[in-house]
Amino acid sequence: MAKEETEVKEKDLEIIEGEFVNITQSTVRNVEGGHVEMQQVGALSVDGERIEATQCAAVLLRGDEVSLNQSISTVTIGSNTTVNFSCAPLTISRSEIVINRSAAGIVAAGSVKADKSAALLVLANTVEGELTTLLDWKSAVALSAVAGGIWGLLSLLRRK
To answer: Which residues pair with 58 in a beta bridge?
Structure first.
């Protein structure tokens, strides 16, 4: 059985599918594949078993093994996720997230390993390393309660 390999360089494409996908200096709407490697790519949605993104911008990355290097991804979902020198506003992982010198918004995982990184909110069983967070779980609950109370009060006042 021959393995399907797709290589794209400097193109604007809609949909790419393949077992091994290598994209360089391109824009693409949707990528689906087993092993996806991207360098300097703008993508809307990437779905694969193993995703490696270097200097990329993506809206949604979803895979088993996800690696971001000097990239930005709005939503990153994976089983094992690595974020190096990147920005990831929402990162969700089934087992582990490794964050190295990166900025994250909301991080949710079984365990988080960090090195000189920052996050808005971290939801994890274990956190190791140097990770600066703005909100811990107690302050997040308190902030949610205050916001809900203000919302409820404004809703009552608006009805009268």
So the answer is: 43, 73
Is residue 81 packed enough to be buried (19+ CB in 10 Å), middle (13-18) or exposed (0-12)? Answer: buried
Which position has the token pair 């091994």? 20
Tokens encoding 49: 């078993």
Mean pLDDT for back-to-back runs of 10 residues, the chain (160 residues):
66 86 93 94 95 96 96 96 96 95 94 95 92 85 92 87
Furthest CA-CA distance within the chain: 71
The whole-angstrom separation of Cα 44 and Cα 80 is 21
Strands 72-84 and 87-100 come out as: parallel
**Chain position carrying tokens 């021959």:** 2
In the chain, the amino acid numbered 57 is A
Whole-angstrom Cα distance, residue 149 to residue 108? 26
pTM here is 0.83
Give the CA radius of gyration of the chain.
Answer: 19
CB 83 within 8 A of CB 98: yes
Read off the amino acid at residue 36: V
User: In the structure encoding, which two tokens stand for residue 104, read together?
Assistant: 């994250």
**What gap in Å lies between CA 108 and CA 41, rounded to an integer?**
26
